[in-house]
Design a protein that fits this description.
single chain, about 425 residues, alpha/beta, FAD/NAD(P)-binding domain, 3 domains, five-stranded parallel beta sheet, 8 helices, 25 strands, elongated
Amino acid sequence: MSPQHAFHVAVAGGGVAAIEAVLALRDLAGDRVRLTLIAPEREFELRPLRTAVPFAADHTRRHALADLAREVGAELVAGSVVAVEPTRRALRTDAGRVVEYDALVLALGARQRPAFARVITFGGPDPDNTYNGLLADLEEGWSRSAAFVVPPGQSWPLPAYELALMTAAEVRSMGMKDVAIELVTPEAAPLEIFGPRAAEAVGALLEQAGVTFRGNAHVDLADDGRLSFGVEGEPITAERIVALPLLDGPVLPGVPSNAEGFIPVDEHGRVEGVEDIYAAGDATTFPIKQGGLACQMADAVAEAIAARAGADVRPQPFTPVLRGRLLTPHGAQQFEHRLADGSEQEPRMVLWSPAHKIEGRYLSAWLAGRDGGATEAAEPAGAAEGLEVEVPLNAWQEGQRAMRLEPYGPMTVR
Protein backbone atom coordinates (compact mmCIF):
# COMPACT_ATOMS: atom_id res chain seq x y z
CA MET A 1 0.00 0.00 0.00
CA SER A 2 1.36 3.43 -0.91
CA PRO A 3 2.08 5.83 1.97
CA GLN A 4 -0.43 8.30 0.54
CA HIS A 5 -3.28 5.79 0.90
CA ALA A 6 -2.21 4.18 4.17
CA PHE A 7 -4.32 4.66 7.29
CA HIS A 8 -2.73 7.61 9.10
CA VAL A 9 -2.19 7.12 12.84
CA ALA A 10 -0.89 9.98 14.95
CA VAL A 11 0.60 8.99 18.32
CA ALA A 12 1.01 11.79 20.84
CA GLY A 13 3.59 11.27 23.59
CA GLY A 14 7.17 10.20 24.16
CA GLY A 15 6.83 7.70 27.02
CA VAL A 16 6.35 3.98 27.39
CA ALA A 17 2.77 3.85 26.07
CA ALA A 18 3.66 5.87 22.96
CA ILE A 19 6.69 3.75 22.14
CA GLU A 20 4.81 0.50 22.72
CA ALA A 21 2.00 1.77 20.49
CA VAL A 22 4.19 2.67 17.50
CA LEU A 23 6.18 -0.57 17.77
CA ALA A 24 2.98 -2.62 17.99
CA LEU A 25 1.28 -0.77 15.13
CA ARG A 26 4.21 -1.28 12.79
CA ASP A 27 4.37 -4.99 13.66
CA LEU A 28 0.62 -5.64 13.47
CA ALA A 29 -0.37 -3.41 10.57
CA GLY A 30 2.85 -3.09 8.55
CA ASP A 31 2.56 -0.65 5.67
CA ARG A 32 -1.21 -0.46 6.09
CA VAL A 33 -0.56 2.41 8.48
CA ARG A 34 1.37 5.65 8.15
CA LEU A 35 2.73 6.73 11.53
CA THR A 36 3.36 10.17 12.97
CA LEU A 37 4.89 10.46 16.43
CA ILE A 38 4.39 13.80 18.20
CA ALA A 39 6.55 14.25 21.29
CA PRO A 40 7.81 17.23 23.30
CA GLU A 41 11.01 15.41 24.27
CA ARG A 42 13.88 14.47 21.99
CA GLU A 43 14.68 11.37 24.06
CA PHE A 44 12.85 8.59 25.82
CA GLU A 45 13.92 8.13 29.45
CA LEU A 46 13.31 4.89 31.34
CA ARG A 47 12.03 6.73 34.41
CA PRO A 48 11.42 3.70 36.67
CA LEU A 49 15.21 3.32 36.87
CA ARG A 50 15.50 6.66 38.68
CA THR A 51 15.30 4.89 42.03
CA ALA A 52 18.47 2.95 41.16
CA VAL A 53 20.61 5.91 40.11
CA PRO A 54 21.47 7.42 43.54
CA PHE A 55 22.77 4.04 44.70
CA ALA A 56 24.85 3.31 41.57
CA ALA A 57 22.66 0.24 40.98
CA ASP A 58 21.98 1.44 37.46
CA HIS A 59 22.11 4.58 35.36
CA THR A 60 19.55 6.74 33.63
CA ARG A 61 18.93 5.28 30.19
CA ARG A 62 17.83 7.59 27.37
CA HIS A 63 17.17 6.74 23.76
CA ALA A 64 16.70 9.17 20.88
CA LEU A 65 13.14 9.24 19.57
CA ALA A 66 14.54 10.07 16.13
CA ASP A 67 16.17 6.61 16.09
CA LEU A 68 12.86 4.98 17.00
CA ALA A 69 11.06 6.96 14.28
CA ARG A 70 13.57 5.78 11.68
CA GLU A 71 13.21 2.16 12.82
CA VAL A 72 9.43 2.14 12.45
CA GLY A 73 9.26 4.50 9.46
CA ALA A 74 7.38 7.20 11.35
CA GLU A 75 7.46 10.96 10.94
CA LEU A 76 8.67 12.62 14.14
CA VAL A 77 7.05 15.94 15.04
CA ALA A 78 8.60 17.92 17.88
CA GLY A 79 6.08 19.55 20.16
CA SER A 80 3.23 19.06 22.60
CA VAL A 81 -0.38 18.56 21.58
CA VAL A 82 -2.36 21.54 22.93
CA ALA A 83 -5.78 20.93 21.37
CA VAL A 84 -7.74 18.35 19.38
CA GLU A 85 -10.59 18.98 16.94
CA PRO A 86 -12.36 15.61 16.73
CA THR A 87 -14.82 16.67 14.01
CA ARG A 88 -11.90 17.67 11.75
CA ARG A 89 -9.77 14.72 12.83
CA ALA A 90 -6.95 17.13 13.50
CA LEU A 91 -4.70 18.20 16.36
CA ARG A 92 -2.64 21.32 17.00
CA THR A 93 0.80 21.48 18.61
CA ASP A 94 2.33 24.22 20.73
CA ALA A 95 4.42 25.20 17.69
CA GLY A 96 1.25 25.88 15.72
CA ARG A 97 1.47 22.82 13.50
CA VAL A 98 -1.77 21.11 12.52
CA VAL A 99 -1.66 17.34 12.05
CA GLU A 100 -4.61 15.54 10.51
CA TYR A 101 -5.20 11.88 11.31
CA ASP A 102 -7.42 8.90 10.64
CA ALA A 103 -6.87 7.69 14.21
CA LEU A 104 -5.23 9.46 17.14
CA VAL A 105 -3.53 7.76 20.09
CA LEU A 106 -3.10 9.93 23.18
CA ALA A 107 -0.23 8.58 25.27
CA LEU A 108 0.43 11.84 27.09
CA GLY A 109 1.20 10.55 30.57
CA ALA A 110 0.17 12.35 33.75
CA ARG A 111 1.33 15.58 35.36
CA GLN A 112 3.23 15.24 38.63
CA ARG A 113 2.74 17.59 41.54
CA PRO A 114 4.10 17.56 45.09
CA ALA A 115 1.78 16.01 47.66
CA PHE A 116 3.23 18.10 50.50
CA ALA A 117 5.19 21.30 50.90
CA ARG A 118 8.73 21.45 52.31
CA VAL A 119 9.57 17.78 51.77
CA ILE A 120 11.55 16.05 49.05
CA THR A 121 9.28 14.93 46.23
CA PHE A 122 11.02 12.06 44.48
CA GLY A 123 10.98 12.49 40.73
CA GLY A 124 11.17 16.28 40.85
CA PRO A 125 13.13 18.47 38.42
CA ASP A 126 16.58 17.35 39.68
CA PRO A 127 15.99 14.00 41.44
CA ASP A 128 19.58 12.73 41.38
CA ASN A 129 21.24 15.72 43.05
CA THR A 130 18.40 16.19 45.54
CA TYR A 131 18.50 12.61 46.68
CA ASN A 132 22.29 12.47 46.72
CA GLY A 133 22.18 15.36 49.18
CA LEU A 134 19.83 13.42 51.45
CA LEU A 135 22.09 10.35 51.35
CA ALA A 136 25.11 12.49 52.22
CA ASP A 137 23.29 13.95 55.24
CA LEU A 138 22.41 10.48 56.50
CA GLU A 139 25.83 8.96 55.83
CA GLU A 140 27.68 11.84 57.48
CA GLY A 141 25.44 11.92 60.55
CA TRP A 142 23.81 15.29 59.91
CA SER A 143 20.41 13.57 59.92
CA ARG A 144 19.50 10.51 61.98
CA SER A 145 16.09 9.60 60.57
CA ALA A 146 14.20 9.50 57.28
CA ALA A 147 10.61 8.69 56.37
CA PHE A 148 9.41 7.60 52.93
CA VAL A 149 5.78 8.61 52.50
CA VAL A 150 3.15 7.27 50.11
CA PRO A 151 0.50 10.02 50.06
CA PRO A 152 -3.22 9.24 49.93
CA GLY A 153 -4.24 9.07 46.28
CA GLN A 154 -0.95 7.61 45.02
CA SER A 155 -1.85 4.29 43.36
CA TRP A 156 1.66 2.99 42.61
CA PRO A 157 3.66 2.86 45.87
CA LEU A 158 6.52 0.60 44.74
CA PRO A 159 9.15 3.36 44.27
CA ALA A 160 8.84 4.31 47.97
CA TYR A 161 9.73 0.73 48.94
CA GLU A 162 12.74 0.73 46.63
CA LEU A 163 13.98 4.02 48.06
CA ALA A 164 13.51 2.89 51.66
CA LEU A 165 15.26 -0.45 51.14
CA MET A 166 18.14 0.96 49.14
CA THR A 167 18.62 3.91 51.50
CA ALA A 168 18.69 1.62 54.52
CA ALA A 169 21.31 -0.59 52.87
CA GLU A 170 23.39 2.43 51.85
CA VAL A 171 23.54 4.03 55.30
CA ARG A 172 24.14 0.69 57.04
CA SER A 173 27.05 0.01 54.70
CA MET A 174 28.59 3.30 55.82
CA GLY A 175 28.48 2.17 59.44
CA MET A 176 25.45 4.31 60.42
CA LYS A 177 23.59 1.63 62.37
CA ASP A 178 21.42 4.01 64.39
CA VAL A 179 19.70 5.82 61.50
CA ALA A 180 15.92 5.27 61.72
CA ILE A 181 14.25 4.52 58.39
CA GLU A 182 10.49 4.17 58.13
CA LEU A 183 7.98 3.67 55.33
CA VAL A 184 4.63 5.43 55.80
CA THR A 185 1.74 4.34 53.59
CA PRO A 186 -2.08 4.09 53.47
CA GLU A 187 -1.72 0.38 52.72
CA ALA A 188 -2.66 -2.04 55.46
CA ALA A 189 0.19 -4.40 54.51
CA PRO A 190 3.40 -3.95 52.49
CA LEU A 191 2.56 -3.68 48.78
CA GLU A 192 -0.84 -5.20 49.48
CA ILE A 193 -1.92 -4.46 45.91
CA PHE A 194 -0.04 -7.64 44.95
CA GLY A 195 -1.72 -9.97 47.43
CA PRO A 196 -0.93 -11.58 50.80
CA ARG A 197 2.09 -13.68 49.82
CA ALA A 198 3.84 -10.69 48.29
CA ALA A 199 2.94 -8.58 51.34
CA GLU A 200 4.52 -11.16 53.62
CA ALA A 201 7.67 -11.34 51.48
CA VAL A 202 8.08 -7.58 51.26
CA GLY A 203 7.42 -7.24 54.98
CA ALA A 204 10.29 -9.64 55.60
CA LEU A 205 12.55 -7.60 53.32
CA LEU A 206 11.71 -4.42 55.22
CA GLU A 207 12.32 -6.06 58.57
CA GLN A 208 15.62 -7.52 57.43
CA ALA A 209 16.72 -4.09 56.18
CA GLY A 210 15.70 -2.39 59.44
CA VAL A 211 12.91 -0.36 57.83
CA THR A 212 9.89 0.30 60.06
CA PHE A 213 6.57 -0.19 58.25
CA ARG A 214 3.74 2.18 59.24
CA GLY A 215 0.58 1.05 57.49
CA ASN A 216 -2.94 2.48 57.44
CA ALA A 217 -1.27 5.89 57.63
CA HIS A 218 -3.15 8.69 55.87
CA VAL A 219 -0.69 11.55 56.09
CA ASP A 220 -1.85 15.17 56.17
CA LEU A 221 -0.10 18.52 56.30
CA ALA A 222 -0.82 20.21 59.64
CA ASP A 223 -1.26 23.96 60.17
CA ASP A 224 2.27 24.24 61.55
CA GLY A 225 3.69 22.76 58.35
CA ARG A 226 4.49 19.35 59.82
CA LEU A 227 3.22 16.07 58.44
CA SER A 228 1.03 13.97 60.70
CA PHE A 229 -0.89 10.71 60.59
CA GLY A 230 -4.28 12.29 59.90
CA VAL A 231 -5.52 15.73 60.85
CA GLU A 232 -5.55 14.94 64.59
CA GLY A 233 -2.88 12.27 64.43
CA GLU A 234 0.64 11.77 65.67
CA PRO A 235 3.25 13.94 63.88
CA ILE A 236 5.96 12.37 61.76
CA THR A 237 9.18 13.09 63.63
CA ALA A 238 11.69 12.04 60.95
CA GLU A 239 14.32 14.68 60.21
CA ARG A 240 14.17 14.05 56.46
CA ILE A 241 10.99 13.18 54.56
CA VAL A 242 10.69 11.88 51.01
CA ALA A 243 7.23 11.65 49.42
CA LEU A 244 5.97 10.27 46.15
CA PRO A 245 4.18 12.78 43.93
CA LEU A 246 0.49 12.94 43.13
CA LEU A 247 -0.70 12.77 39.54
CA ASP A 248 -3.15 14.85 37.52
CA GLY A 249 -4.48 14.17 34.04
CA PRO A 250 -3.29 16.09 30.98
CA VAL A 251 -6.50 18.17 30.45
CA LEU A 252 -6.55 18.54 26.66
CA PRO A 253 -9.12 20.83 24.96
CA GLY A 254 -11.41 18.84 22.69
CA VAL A 255 -10.89 15.58 24.59
CA PRO A 256 -13.27 14.30 27.30
CA SER A 257 -11.85 14.13 30.82
CA ASN A 258 -13.00 13.70 34.40
CA ALA A 259 -12.59 16.17 37.23
CA GLU A 260 -8.93 15.21 37.70
CA GLY A 261 -8.15 15.63 34.01
CA PHE A 262 -7.87 11.93 33.13
CA ILE A 263 -9.29 10.56 29.87
CA PRO A 264 -12.11 7.97 30.03
CA VAL A 265 -11.61 4.96 27.74
CA ASP A 266 -13.28 1.64 27.10
CA GLU A 267 -11.60 -1.77 27.20
CA HIS A 268 -10.11 -1.27 23.74
CA GLY A 269 -8.73 2.16 24.59
CA ARG A 270 -11.35 4.13 22.67
CA VAL A 271 -11.98 7.52 24.23
CA GLU A 272 -15.59 7.82 25.31
CA GLY A 273 -17.70 10.41 23.54
CA VAL A 274 -15.49 10.99 20.47
CA GLU A 275 -14.64 9.06 17.33
CA ASP A 276 -11.26 7.82 16.14
CA ILE A 277 -9.43 8.87 19.31
CA TYR A 278 -7.75 6.34 21.60
CA ALA A 279 -5.76 6.75 24.80
CA ALA A 280 -3.33 4.58 26.76
CA GLY A 281 -1.25 4.82 29.89
CA ASP A 282 -1.23 7.22 32.82
CA ALA A 283 -3.40 9.78 30.99
CA THR A 284 -6.44 7.49 31.23
CA THR A 285 -8.86 6.99 34.09
CA PHE A 286 -7.56 3.49 34.84
CA PRO A 287 -6.56 3.92 38.49
CA ILE A 288 -3.18 2.16 38.53
CA LYS A 289 -0.51 4.35 36.94
CA GLN A 290 2.29 1.94 36.03
CA GLY A 291 4.46 1.39 32.97
CA GLY A 292 3.64 -2.27 32.37
CA LEU A 293 -0.08 -1.56 32.40
CA ALA A 294 0.51 1.38 30.04
CA CYS A 295 2.14 -1.03 27.59
CA GLN A 296 -0.76 -3.46 27.83
CA MET A 297 -3.22 -0.66 27.15
CA ALA A 298 -1.14 0.44 24.16
CA ASP A 299 -1.20 -3.12 22.81
CA ALA A 300 -5.00 -3.22 23.02
CA VAL A 301 -5.19 0.13 21.22
CA ALA A 302 -2.75 -1.00 18.52
CA GLU A 303 -4.76 -4.15 17.87
CA ALA A 304 -8.00 -2.18 17.52
CA ILE A 305 -6.42 0.32 15.12
CA ALA A 306 -4.60 -2.36 13.10
CA ALA A 307 -7.90 -4.15 12.56
CA ARG A 308 -9.47 -0.89 11.40
CA ALA A 309 -6.60 -0.44 8.96
CA GLY A 310 -7.39 -3.84 7.42
CA ALA A 311 -4.80 -6.03 9.15
CA ASP A 312 -5.68 -9.62 9.99
CA VAL A 313 -5.90 -8.93 13.71
CA ARG A 314 -8.59 -9.86 16.18
CA PRO A 315 -8.53 -7.07 18.78
CA GLN A 316 -8.36 -8.24 22.37
CA PRO A 317 -9.60 -6.07 25.24
CA PHE A 318 -7.24 -4.64 27.80
CA THR A 319 -7.09 -7.27 30.55
CA PRO A 320 -4.61 -5.89 33.09
CA VAL A 321 -1.82 -8.07 34.40
CA LEU A 322 0.04 -6.13 37.07
CA ARG A 323 3.76 -6.84 37.21
CA GLY A 324 6.15 -5.10 39.55
CA ARG A 325 9.86 -5.56 40.04
CA LEU A 326 11.18 -4.30 43.33
CA LEU A 327 14.82 -3.24 43.31
CA THR A 328 16.67 -4.28 46.45
CA PRO A 329 20.39 -4.27 47.29
CA HIS A 330 20.66 -7.88 46.07
CA GLY A 331 18.62 -8.13 42.88
CA ALA A 332 15.08 -9.34 42.20
CA GLN A 333 12.82 -12.14 43.42
CA GLN A 334 9.73 -13.16 41.49
CA PHE A 335 6.26 -13.77 42.89
CA GLU A 336 2.95 -14.44 41.18
CA HIS A 337 -0.57 -13.86 42.46
CA ARG A 338 -3.50 -14.54 40.18
CA LEU A 339 -6.40 -12.47 41.43
CA ALA A 340 -9.12 -14.22 39.43
CA ASP A 341 -8.83 -17.51 41.34
CA GLY A 342 -6.62 -16.46 44.27
CA SER A 343 -3.85 -18.90 43.36
CA GLU A 344 -0.23 -18.11 44.16
CA GLN A 345 3.07 -19.68 43.23
CA GLU A 346 6.23 -20.11 45.20
CA PRO A 347 8.79 -17.36 44.56
CA ARG A 348 11.84 -17.95 42.42
CA MET A 349 15.06 -15.97 42.06
CA VAL A 350 15.71 -13.97 38.89
CA LEU A 351 18.36 -11.52 37.76
CA TRP A 352 17.80 -7.79 38.02
CA SER A 353 17.07 -6.77 34.44
CA PRO A 354 16.81 -3.06 33.60
CA ALA A 355 15.22 -3.86 30.24
CA HIS A 356 12.41 -5.59 32.12
CA LYS A 357 11.85 -2.92 34.75
CA ILE A 358 8.82 -2.22 32.57
CA GLU A 359 7.27 -5.31 31.00
CA GLY A 360 6.05 -4.52 27.49
CA ARG A 361 5.39 -6.98 24.69
CA TYR A 362 7.43 -4.82 22.31
CA LEU A 363 9.11 -2.31 24.60
CA SER A 364 11.15 -4.84 26.59
CA ALA A 365 12.72 -6.34 23.47
CA TRP A 366 13.33 -2.86 22.03
CA LEU A 367 15.08 -1.74 25.23
CA ALA A 368 17.18 -4.90 25.34
CA GLY A 369 18.28 -4.27 21.78
CA ARG A 370 19.26 -0.68 22.62
CA ASP A 371 21.36 -1.91 25.54
CA GLY A 372 23.47 -4.31 23.53
CA GLY A 373 20.98 -7.14 23.26
CA ALA A 374 21.13 -8.07 26.95
CA THR A 375 18.39 -10.44 28.01
CA GLU A 376 17.41 -11.92 31.31
CA ALA A 377 19.13 -15.16 32.25
CA ALA A 378 18.46 -17.76 34.87
CA GLU A 379 20.09 -17.26 38.24
CA PRO A 380 20.85 -19.81 40.94
CA ALA A 381 18.47 -19.90 43.87
CA GLY A 382 19.49 -17.71 46.76
CA ALA A 383 21.44 -15.25 44.62
CA ALA A 384 19.03 -12.33 44.73
CA GLU A 385 16.22 -10.69 46.61
CA GLY A 386 13.37 -8.54 45.32
CA LEU A 387 9.90 -8.84 43.89
CA GLU A 388 8.04 -9.48 40.69
CA VAL A 389 4.31 -10.05 40.88
CA GLU A 390 1.64 -10.88 38.33
CA VAL A 391 -1.97 -10.11 39.18
CA PRO A 392 -4.33 -10.81 36.27
CA LEU A 393 -7.58 -8.90 36.61
CA ASN A 394 -10.52 -10.73 35.10
CA ALA A 395 -12.45 -7.70 33.77
CA TRP A 396 -12.07 -4.00 33.11
CA GLN A 397 -14.15 -2.89 36.11
CA GLU A 398 -12.56 -5.58 38.28
CA GLY A 399 -9.38 -3.56 38.02
CA GLN A 400 -11.01 -0.86 40.10
CA ARG A 401 -13.04 -3.04 42.48
CA ALA A 402 -10.37 -5.61 43.31
CA MET A 403 -7.69 -2.99 43.89
CA ARG A 404 -10.06 -1.22 46.29
CA LEU A 405 -9.65 2.01 44.33
CA GLU A 406 -12.66 4.16 43.54
CA PRO A 407 -13.30 5.22 39.93
CA TYR A 408 -12.65 8.83 39.10
CA GLY A 409 -15.45 11.39 39.02
CA PRO A 410 -17.78 12.66 36.28
CA MET A 411 -16.50 13.32 32.78
CA THR A 412 -16.23 16.78 31.26
CA VAL A 413 -15.06 18.07 27.88
CA ARG A 414 -12.84 21.13 27.81
